[in-house]
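On clarity, I found the account of how folds are encoded harder to follow than it need be. Since the whole study asks how a given chain folds, the encoding of that fold should be made plain. For illustration, here is how one protein appears when written out as sequence plus structure tokens:

:::
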Amino acid sequence: MSEKPRTKTQTSDHTMPSISEIQSEIERVRYRKRYWKSLKSILATLITAAAVAVLISMLWMPVLEIYGPSMAPTLQEGDIVAAVKNSQFETGDVVAFYYNNKILVKRVMAGPGDWIDLREDGTVYVNGEEIDEPYLQEKAYGNPDIEFPYQVPEGRWFVMGDHRSVSKDSRNSEIGPIAKEDIVGKLVFRLWPNPGTTGAD
């Protein structure tokens, strides 16, 4: 008689996961999805905030760093200041403007059509009236190459630095009076290192 072949029972080392293990895995997957969703939301918020900050800085409130001593003692080298876009300026306002691919900062002394006169002792007169300048440490005539009294052309502003003996400004024909379209804005606030007004008022 022939023997029947023996069948071997296959046993598996793998066991079915328990209900608690399945639930734990589901929660882990859900947590991961929530984590990435939250991360994407945070990143989107940060990118939007950064874009808005850049837009405000470019279009409404440019932030500038002061270089050089021409506005001392009002502004010192390294000061960080904020400017506001504006189209109206008065004597005493501190403005930033473009010149030769740079941004300079000076003080408005006279506007379109005004007559400005600079005496040898450094005293400034606008339309025959002496300008009170408490922000100056000392007056100085500087090295102007234009004749005074001088009438400011239409659409332009005559500007001078507060450190009159070293400032290169509208007293020199190389810079001359500043065109409206070249003005970045009026400086209104010092952000660093000593927050406060710029002393422009």
